[in-house]
Each structure stands twice: as structure tokens, then as C-alpha cells.
Q: What sequence folds into this?
């Protein structure tokens, strides 16, 4: 994306989270609402605006949040749930914070495409698994259920969407839930 160009948001289908339904429907609905909320907070901004830090010395940016959630989606739904070897998108052992740190030369179009692809991969990765499916966390050695992963991801998005709301307000004054 050329500097100054506005990022063209993908179709944002920010459907309100379900208020009735079975547990899986509720968890998936809330998670999808939060995924779409993050995209909504980024819509209409140009590449430079997506890279504006919240408040120095923090390196928290809207684009960094999208890159971070791409990593988190992959880590929980694709790698940990299935016990696969780590295969991060942006980060490495040498640069564990690269999702937030390597923003200056980042390409928002590519990063948003990765985010959307990772969200879809997450959905597909766990589609056939029951919420009771468990795995052992590689670092903590705790037994964790897929149900817990959904709850954790909702919490992770909710926290970061709060950050996104403040960053967006700083950039252009836009606010909203």
C-alpha cells in the first residue's frame, strides 16, 4: 500500500453477538463479533494512521493489534489445540514482539489479508472438535479445553478492542462500541 492511501476494509459483517442459542453458537458468535469489531476500528484509515502509536513510549498501534491477533488466532486455534509445532506469522524466539515492533515497513493490505485468512483457518481448525476437546499447553503443562480457548479469545479481543477504541479516538476522534 502506498503511503497516504486509505486501507480498503474488507466487508465488515459486524452482526451483533447472539443472545440465545446453544453454547457453541454463543461462543462463536461473540468471538466473530469481536473479530469484526477490530476490523471496524481500523476501517477508513490510511497506512500511516494504522501505524500511529497509542501514546509514546508504547508501540501499540491498530495495525500492531491486527498483527498480534493474527498470531494469537494461529497460536491457540491451530497450533496449541492440535499440538503442532510453533509456526508464527510475525514473531520468532529472537523477536517475540515483532507483531508490534515491525510496523514501520508493514503492509496493511497484506496484514489484514493474513488476519482474515487466519480467522478462517481458526474456524476450520476447530469446526469438528467438541468444546470438551483438551490439550496440554506446551509451556505451562496445564490441561486446557477448547471451551477455555473460546473464552480466552473473547477476553483477548475484548481487551484489545478497548485499546483499539482509545487509539482510534486519538487518531481521528471516532468512538463507538
A:
Amino acid at each position: 500500500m502506498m503511503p497516504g492511501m486509505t486501507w480498503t476494509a474488507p466487508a465488515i459483517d459486524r452482526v451483533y453477538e447472539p443472545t440465545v442459542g446453544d453454547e457453541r453458537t454463543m461462543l462463536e458468535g461473540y468471538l466473530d463479533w469481536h473479530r469484526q469489531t477490530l476490523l471496524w476500528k481500523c476501517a477508513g484509515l490510511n497506512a500511516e494512521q494504522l501505524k500511529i502509536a497509542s501514546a509514546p513510549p508504547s508501540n501499540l498501534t491498530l495495525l500492531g493489534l491486527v498483527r498480534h491477533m493474527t498470531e494469537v488466532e494461529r497460536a491457540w486455534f491451530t497450533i496449541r489445540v492440535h499440538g503442532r509445532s510453533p509456526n508464527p506469522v510475525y514473531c520468532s524466539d529472537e523477536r517475540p514482539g515483532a507483531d508490534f515492533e515491525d510496523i514501520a515497513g508493514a503492509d496493511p493490505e497484506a496484514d489484514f489479508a493474513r488476519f482474515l485468512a487466519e480467522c478462517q483457518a481458526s474456524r476450520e481448525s476447530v469446526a469438528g472438535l467438541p468444546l470438551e476437546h483438551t490439550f496440554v499447553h506446551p509451556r505451562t503443562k496445564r490441561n486446557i479445553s477448547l471451551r477455555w480457548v473460546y473464552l480466552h479469545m473473547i477476553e483477548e479481543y475484548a481487551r484489545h478492542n478497548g485499546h483499539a477504541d482509545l487509539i482510534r479516538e486519538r487518531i481521528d476522534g471516532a468512538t463507538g462500541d
Q: What stands out?
A: The chain has a mean pLDDT of 92. Residues 27-172 form a domain with the Four Helix Bundle (Hemerythrin (Met), subunit A) fold (CATH 1.20.120.450).
